[in-house]
Write a structure and sequence with these properties.
This protein has 456 residues and is α/β, with parallel strands linked by helices. The protein is built from 14 helices and 10 strands. It is 54% helix and 14% strand. This is Glycosyl transferase.
């Protein structure tokens, strides 16, 4: 995956054969992959509709044809289409090789902190352990902390002999902290890292390599975020699979079509000039989403690098998980309000951002129809949830298996091992959406009525 191209090897136009290590390789353009995935997903939906006709007739008898179409569409047809599109896209995905996996560009890492005295030292320790050959400068922005974040950061920098600058930003808010830190960035590339996120030893090297390999119109690359504290609680165990399979598969899909929708603030790299031209990070509930969509709106591309891995602490209690995920859902609505999908200049970005327009409908149907239907099914009433709904499970398992195989290769490259977490996987497949949809619905309501923001 990270082999260098031979010096005399030229880029070959799509649909032409070339010789590579004695084998013929066939290149398929991104637009063709998009078309193939779309056709196969539509065929899956047609099959689903045919198989669900008895279900449709029975439900229509109780609530009418229109409502039965809206409910079954939200429960089975649209989710089935989206899963099928993802499966076929992942099967066609081939990550372009890195031109140089040993870059030496001087880069800057911004870390916004609020009361992080217990974690900032460990974060800096993992930065110091990077196998990156270039210079790494670190700017820690103390965002009105009430503890000893600054003192701990400076002491750790001295002990580890790394270049760390600690600055103060009294206005609360991650966007204010990052924008203040941006003023101290003099390098071509700037990375953002959360204070509770630990980098794999090769993370900086791979994410800079991907940026250096990418075309000039690529202004950001999102790294891979995985769960560090998955052994804490059952909730953390579920989230381990969400990050490992769910979020990673979405990132891969978006990266394939060159429109990663979120260069997440937890770990991403950006062209410094692109951020400054965008006016910095916006004062938004989802500042990283809005910033990324502003790049896409200007016909810039955002990539994803699966080998650039960082590990973060996820919420271990339901209250904190609820606030985090409702904030994510609210950030999506905020981005849709600011950047209309149909105004995006690239067809794939129109499609990917347009899919987010459907998410509130799916979450509402799941929350107010599927979950009550599940309760009714336990009582012997199979109007909404019945045997037919089980058809979505094989596709979901296939999707997870495909990504699991791919992620296993990534882990092998990075000399990592996949933790044994059977309970978390079972709960992820069977119960995760039951947990997520109501939380997302609350996030949508918060944004529609502009309720006060809650960060912690």
């Amino acid at each position: 995956m990270n082999q260098q191209l031979p010096p005399n090897q030229q880029i070959v136009p799509p649909f032409r054969w070339k010789i590579k290590h004695g084998k013929k390789t066939f290149y398929i353009p991104v637009k063709t992959k998009f078309t193939i995935s779309m056709i196969m997903a539509l065929m899956w939906v047609m099959l689903s509709i045919y198989l669900s006709l008895p279900w449709m007739r029975e439900l229509a008898f109780h609530i009418g044809l229109l409502f039965s179409i809206l409910i079954i569409g939200g429960i089975a047809y649209i989710p089935g289409y989206m899963n099928a599109f993802m499966v076929f896209s992942l099967l066609l995905d081939r990550q372009p090789p890195l031109k140089d996996d040993q870059p030496e560009k001087h880069v800057t890492i911004l870390i916004a902190c609020y009361n992080e005295e217990k974690r900032i030292r460990n974060t800096l320790k993992y930065i110091a352990a990077q196998d990156y050959q270039g210079q790494i400068s670190v700017v820690v922005i103390d965002n009105n902390s009430k503890d000893y974040t600054e003192e701990v950061a400076l002491k750790a920098a001295e002990e580890m002999q790394i270049e760390v600058c600690v600055i103060q930003e009294p206005t609360s808010g991650k966007s204010f902290a990052l924008n203040t830190g941006l003023q101290y960035v003099e390098t071509e590339y700037v990375l953002t890292l959360d204070a509770d996120t630990l980098l794999h030893p090769s993370a900086v090297r791979y994410i800079v390599s991907r940026m250096e390999t990418a075309p000039e119109d690529v202004c950001a690359v999102a790294g891979t975020i995985l769960v560090r504290n998955s052994r804490s609680t059952w909730l953390a165990k579920i989230q381990e699979w969400d990050y490992f399979l769910g979020i990673a598969s979405t990132k891969r899909l978006q990266g394939l079509f060159q429109g990663t929708l979120v260069a997440q603030g937890a770990f991403s790299i950006y062209q410094t000039s692109a951020i400054k031209m965008a006016g910095g990070w916006p004062d938004a509930i989802g500042e990283d989403i809005v910033l990324t969509w502003s790049f896409l709106r200007k016909n810039r591309r955002v990539y994803f690098e699966p080998l650039a891995v960082a590990f973060t602490d996820v919420p271990v209690v339901l209250k904190h998980f609820f606030r985090q995920r409702s904030r994510w859902a609210r950030g999506m609505i905020e981005a849709l309000r600011l950047f209309k999908p149909w105004k995006q200049p690239v067809y794939s970005v129109k499609y990917l951002t347009g899919c987010n327009l459907i998410m509130p409908y799916l979450d509402f149907v799941y929350t107010f129809c599927w979950i009550p239907g599940l309760v009714l099914a336990f009582g012997g009433y199979y109007w909404i949830v019945g045997v037919t709904t089980l058809f979505v499970i094989p596709l979901s398992l296939l999707q997870n298996y495909i990504l699991y195989c791919y992620q296993k290769k990534v882990f092998g490259t990075l000399h990592l091992k996949i933790r044994r977490n059977v309970l978390g996987f079972v709960l992820f497949v069977l119960c995760y959406q039951i947990l997520m949809s109501p939380i997302s619905v609350w996030g949508y309501i918060q944004e529609v009525f502009r309720l006060p923001r809650t960060w912690k």
